[in-house]
Structures are given as C-alpha cells and as structure tokens.
Design goal:
Layout lengths: L7 E5 L2 E11 L5 E15 L2 E9 L1 H30 L1
Antiparallel strand pairs: 1-2, 2-3, 3-4
Length: 88
C-alpha cells in the first residue's frame, strides 16, 4: 500500500471502511496503480479489543452490498414473522 495510510476513511460505530492506493509492477516493468477497500469490524470482549478485516477490489464492492442487503432482508422478514406469530 502506497504510503501505508488510507486515501479516505469512514467509520460508524465498530464498522470502518478505508480506501487504499496500491501499486504493482506489470510484466513490462511499468508500475500500475489501483485502489482497494478494507472493511473492518471491531468489538470488545472480556476487556480485550478484537477486529476482523477483509480487503475488496472494485468489482467486489457491489457484490458485497448485494449479499448484505439480502441478509438484511432475511433478518427483517424473519423478525416481522416472529412478531406476527407472537401476536396471535
């Protein structure tokens, strides 16, 4: 990672997303620049901080958004079903 600092960073609670500038050498010796995204979740357990992090490329971001939306739909739909069953 170029400069070892993110180009941009956002945080909401224990979730953080950072954009990184990277470089790699092509077969012909030229240096190619590209960006990646890291997604990190931090949490505290038994007074010890932990985190989990994944790196995504540009083409991965929309796929991650889609599967997270599907997971959210499932959780919300199941939550509504449970509440409806409890009311009966």
């Amino acid at each position: 990672m170029v400069g070892n600092r993110p180009v941009k960073k956002w945080r909401i609670g224990g979730i953080e997303c950072s954009v990184w500038e990277n470089e790699r050498e092509a077969n012909d010796g030229t240096i190619l620049g590209f960006k990646t995204v890291s997604l990190k979740k931090s949490w505290k357990q038994n007074e010890i901080w932990h985190d989990a992090q994944i790196q995504l490329r540009r083409n991965d971001i929309q796929k991650a958004i889609l599967v997270l939306q599907k997971a959210q739909e499932e959780l919300l739909l199941n939550s509504d079903n449970l509440e409806a069953q409890e009311e009966e």
